[in-house]
Design a protein that fits this description.
Layout: E1 4-9, E2 15-19, E3 49-54
Antiparallel strand pairs: 1-2, 1-3
The structure holds zinc ion.
Length: 64
């Protein structure tokens, strides 16, 4: 089972869930700001995404 990660757009703030295996970090050495590769951009505005954590960790995003 693939864990989904939550990513948020830096421009419009829209969050997206991306499968952990599909995530490519822009700079894996930067542990403070986990920017995603420009291959994975916001579907809404094309902005750069930042990894915020595992999907489901935040109660707001818990799925039924
Ligand atoms: Zn966006």
């Amino acid at each position: 089972m693939s864990q989904e990660m939550e990513c948020m757009c830096q421009q419009c703030g829209m969050s997206s869930h991306i499968a952990e295996g599909d995530i490519v970090l822009e700079d894996p050495a930067n542990v403070e700001l986990k920017l995603l590769s420009k291959l994975l951009v916001c579907q809404n505005c094309g902005g750069q995404l930042v990894l915020v954590g595992k999907a489901g960790d935040e109660p707001h995003y818990r799925l039924k």
